[in-house]
Specification:
- The chain is α/β, with parallel strands linked by helices.
- The chain has three domains: 219 residues, 3-Layer(aba) Sandwich (Rossmann fold), CATH 3.40.50; 112 residues, Rossmann fold, CATH 3.40.50.980; 88 residues, GMP Synthetase, Chain A, domain 3 (2-Layer Sandwich), CATH 3.30.300.30.
- Helices cover 34% and strands 24% of the residues.
- An eleven-stranded mixed beta sheet has the order 4-3-5-6-7-8-9-13-12-11-10, with helices on both faces.
- Strand 14 and strand 15 form a beta hairpin.
- The protein is globular and about 65 Å long.
- The N terminus is likely disordered.
């Protein structure tokens, strides 16, 4: 299939100045190759699946050869396994390598740094799963993440420099917004709002800010944007006539109800994204609905609990090999997220492979008293359909005890507590203790994310 022309975002002259001059200059000063990466990806996205598969195999082989020479951990591992990276033909050969997880990274962190590596930045995950992680990211990886995200942004007819409102981050992250970043955001017309405190007063402020700034795109956690949309509706404030073109959401599972609230509240489509600070920018939804993988630089495997690679259509854990991590490699990295690959071709014409669905994190699942595993949605539906509940959180402490936090609003009925207990016991077991607590507020995670379900019982 011939390369299709990339649709240029319908933007004004200032956006063109930002995307063609100011932002590329910013990236060059930071020694990022993101402009070249984006251009490369905008060409390769139209290749056939067969050509993309060949390109991925070649890049994987070169990547493994590189880290086998320069990274102490992989140099020793390849020698122990008798693995010659020159013989690697594609993702199917990765099964010869062990998985990389948080424990191994903690144990071998300094040996995972490449000899003579370039500038790297120390990062850490928030540890919402109970396992915080410290790792390093080099310039190559940063360039890929920016370039891949930039490509996906342009799919929706918007570009860097279009007015953007971002609902994101923790107090710690926001405190790092130095004057240089503030100047950059001002030039790029990006306005940042904190997602960690969604109080009534702050929600009023967010609604006023969105109405006054009239952004062309939103970016944030689906939980945060859906809360703002619902709050505006309760206040009788219309945000669906501001000209917002798209709401980008990521970093949490996107529930159908959240998508409906955001689309209705802001009058725009929702573009779901999937990625993580440690695993990279992995997939993004196009306007035709396909959840496309950034397959040129990221190899995705889906594995079962025993570590066996699963065929498309079957749900399992996402395992990522990021080909832009030569300074600190992520090879067969276990993300803890559950998804399935698709065999379909998207109507958009791109040859990029797709995720069929994203089921969430492994901790979004709960386990019944008899050991039956089920998605947290089995419990979410019990609570969500009851009137008068503004917010909720389900915490499964053990197989014998689950706690439900409820924030009430007008219309709440006292019998709702007993309905929750009965509904949960039908799913988890009649002998399970169900505690319902009425609270004024449910705080977000330190990262600013919001989790509807959190299970500590899966290993029990």
């Amino acid at each position: 299939m011939l390369a299709a022309p990339v649709a240029a975002p319908r933007s004004g002259p200032y956006t063109a100045l930002c995307s063609r001059l100011l932002f590329p200059l910013h990236e060059r000063l930071k020694k990022h190759d993101s402009v070249a990466v984006r251009r490369r990806l905008e060409q390769s996205q139209w290749w056939s699946p067969e050509r993309l598969h060949e390109e991925q195999g070649a890049r994987l082989r070169a990547f493994l050869q590189r880290i086998g020479q320069t990274v102490p951990y992989y140099r020793e591992l390849f020698r122990e396994l008798g693995l010659d990276p020159a013989g690697v033909r594609g993702a199917q050969d990765l099964a010869r390598l062990p998985f990389l997880d948080k424990g191994l990274i903690r144990q071998h962190r300094e040996r995972l740094l490449a000899d003579g590596h370039g500038p790297v930045t120390r990062y850490n995950t928030g540890g919402s799963s109970g396992e915080p992680l410290v790792f390093y990211i080099g310039l190559e990886r940063k360039s890929h993440d920016v370039g891949a995200k930039w490509r996906a942004t342009r799919w929706w007819g918007v570009d860097i420099g279009d007015p953007e409102l971002v609902v994101w981050g923790s107090p710690v992250e926001l405190s790092t917004q130095d004057r240089v970043r503030q100047l950059r955001d001002a030039l790029m017309r990006s306005h940042l709002l904190p997602a960690f405190d969604m109080s009534e007063a702050n929600l009023d402020h967010y609604v006023r800010t969105i109405a006054s700034t009239r952004p062309r795109m939103l970016f944030g956690y689906p939980s945060s944007l859906s809360l703002i949309a619902a709050h505006a509706a309760r206040r009788g404030v219309r945000l669906d006539q501001l000209g917002i073109r798209v709401a980008f959401v990521t970093s949490e599972r996107l529930y159908d109800e959240q998508r409906r609230q955001i689309e209705a509240g802001f009058g725009c489509p929702v573009a779901n994204g999937y990625g993580a600070r440690d695993a990279g920018f992995i997939a993004h939804q196009c306007p035709q609905g396909g959840m496309h993988l950034s397959a040129e630089d990221i190899v995705v495997e889906i594995v079962d609990p025993q570590g066996q690679v699963l065929p498309p259509g079957e749900s399992g854990e996402i395992v990522v090999t990021h080909l832009g991590t030569g300074d600190f490699p992520f090879v067969r990295y276990r993300t803890g997220d559950i998804a399935a690959l698709s065999t379909a071709r998207c109507a958009c014409g791109r040859g990029l492979p797709m995720l069929e669905r994203i089921d969430g994190r492994s901790t979004d699942f709960v386990v019944a008293r008899d050991g039956t595993l089920m998605h947290g949605l089995a419990l979410i539906y019990v609570v969500r359909d009851l009137p008068g509940i503004a917010r909720f959180k389900i915490v499964q402490h053990t197989r014998e005890h689950t706690e439900v936090l409820l924030v009430r609003e007008q219309g709440f009925q006292p019998q709702a507590e007993e309905q929750i207990r009965q509904g949960f016991r039908r799913r988890l077991g009649e002998a399970v203790e169900i505690t319902v607590r009425l609270v004024d507020e449910i705080p977000a995670e330190k990262s600013g994310k919001y989790r509807y379900v959190q299970s500590h019982a899966l290993a029990g």
